């Protein structure tokens, strides 16, 4: 991990009509690390990620990529990945590779443990395998930043752990991994730093140890509970947003 | 980034999707059965290429939009929608639009063109005595005229396909996508003619401008171009439509729809929606409670 940020959020806000999903979010994502975005449902995690990958436009503020030049600077696994029916796992990755460097799908499939399922149609893959294929897709073209939106969603504990291990391995190889998750145990074990989102703001950020110390909590779940409680109180005092 | 980088792989993926979808093969076979049924009833196949084109013209005005809707309405929705992922690749919205359209267009050309080519082959075997004459001068039936008929049919399909895909991009969600595609179907099949007729009876359109007004409607443009450049050539009768306007109409519908698919329309609609919302909010503020 280096102190140079690969990505910077500057006062990012997003409104959907009268509903404000994000409010003045600012943060810097250090390169070569696993950064976890945590928060309750509806806190703005997916909105922040969709703005980051260019799928949504921010109402105000800016997201700037400051990493190395690359053909594909950011890789992305959406919350609910979809794949073109009728194609095998290998064909699916070959298509995405052909848009970047044209490399073969085998190393990507092997990296996520799907080498044996290369010739299986995507419809015949289990939920966990689809998620792994999505992660392999996110790494096509070796992007310096890989964004995984709830990569462990719907997976059994072993598969979830496998996904987080893969994220840690990628960070070990120099790739920055930004992921959102509700699995506090795995985040605690894997993340180098954590961004806590609550009601569209970032009330807390830092390493797991820093957060535990700041909120006098014995776990990340305790930190999240304390942050959410504080934010709710602020919201009640400040009125409805 | 090259403006059209990625078009090839994207188009190839669409072609592969069409080839691997058994329903499209059945659709093409179904079209052949319908064509042969229509020709058996109309007797055009024995008359030669031009009578065959005349017999098929009306059914094709309905069937081609149906095939275009079947091919286009889900091009950007459900499992086919990976735009959020593709935005992280060096592929522009323009490349995506052109690639998806090009691939699906090849599919449409194969689905519609193959049964028409089989019909053309049948005409050459059992058609009238002049059906083997390769000539385009007036008064002669010719396979060249039938090839022109197939080409015009495919161009008509391209315009409706682009319109369907544009509608599916604008609405985005599953059920609404189908509704929007069906709306395109109704507008293409009946809307243009109906509007021209209403305009004529209401006195908005002058009698001598009817040909021009009709040429703007995709199906009327297609019909007019077939009557002018296929039937009219063989029978020395034409003048039913303004040909340059008809060509510009079909090309225009295709180009505008492609622009919508490439994102221009989405941004415009988003701005319009936003303005409506602001206007509505202001209106609510002024209404006494």
From TrEMBL, chain A:
The keyword Cell wall biogenesis/degradation does not apply. One of its GO terms (molecular function) is ATP binding. Pfam families: ABC_tran (PF00005). SUPFAM superfamilies: P-loop containing nucleoside triphosphate hydrolases. The keyword Transport applies. Residues 7-224 form the ABC transporter domain. Keywords: ATP-binding, Nucleotide-binding, Transport. This is ABC transporter ATP-binding protein. It comes from Natronomonas aquatica.
From TrEMBL, chain B:
Keywords: Membrane, Transmembrane, Transmembrane helix. The chain crosses the membrane at residues 23-45, 57-76, 96-126, 146-171, 178-205, 245-265. One of its GO terms (cellular component) is plasma membrane. One of its GO terms (molecular function) is ABC-type transporter activity. This is Copper ABC transporter permease.
